[in-house]
User: Which sequence fits this backbone?
């Protein structure tokens, strides 16, 4: 059930973003990736675990960096960050003991992340969103 909800929600959010034009802005998917990664910090805070918060923050920093690189240079880095976060979800419980993470969250988030990565990849492949930033290029 967790996987199905993740898939449906990722398709719904991504599809809605396309229909209303939110994803025309290159910042949409990098921002989404940062928010997705930050949930693990929220769970650590809910549980009151400073140790988990410190460990989770290191992971968030990595996904934040990938998202910023992707926004600055090419959204293919954001595709990689979303897919990598899905892999991180799969192994999360073996890497970080965070008592605040709901038991269903890793499966839900894995499904969401992988589908969102695939959807963004589809958008980039069909040039519906500009992969590369125009920043820093002379006019």
Assistant:
């Amino acid at each position: 059930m967790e996987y199905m909800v993740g898939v449906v929600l990722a398709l719904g959010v991504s599809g809605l973003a396309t229909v209303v034009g939110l994803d025309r802005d290159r910042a949409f998917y990098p921002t989404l990736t940062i928010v997705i990664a930050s949930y693990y910090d929220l769970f650590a805070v809910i549980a009151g675990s400073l140790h988990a918060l410190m460990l989770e923050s290191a992971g968030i920093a990595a996904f934040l960096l990938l998202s910023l690189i992707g926004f600055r240079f090419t959204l293919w880095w954001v595709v990689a960050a979303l897919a990598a976060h899905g892999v991180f979800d799969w192994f999360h419980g073996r890497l970080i003991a965070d008592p605040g993470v709901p038991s269903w969250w890793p499966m839900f988030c894995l499904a969401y992340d992988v589908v969102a990565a695939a959807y963004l990849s589809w958008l980039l492949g069909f040039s519906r969103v500009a992969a590369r930033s125009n920043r820093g290029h002379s006019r």
